[in-house]
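Predict structure. Chain length: 116.
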Amino acid sequence: MDGVVKFVCLVGFVVLLSVAGVDSAGECGKSTTPDNEAIKLAPCASAAQDENASVSQSCCAQVKKIGQNPSCLCAVLLSNTAKMAGVNPQIAVTIPKRCNLANRPVGYKCGPYTLP
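Prediction complete.
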């Protein structure tokens, strides 16, 4: 009887976790994906391909918003959408610094890259 109660409790706990969606949230949260967030960085296209290109205010605003979650920002910069758009991740990780964002995650590891 004791084993049955433990088993029922375990099954109930697993069901509760899956209903709560604990394991379904990705780097950018439950409601969006890195590929969807990458579309919001369209104003950063030239700055993500050329380190000498100026970074627009609209780009910096989006990077600041997405960069509040560094793991999301990294996932976005390394996403398939970013790759297809011609983003160079090594240059893209410099955008927060080029935007002079005070609270940027300096030293954060973004795949094989480190945010300056």
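Summary: The two ends are 59 Å apart (CA to CA).
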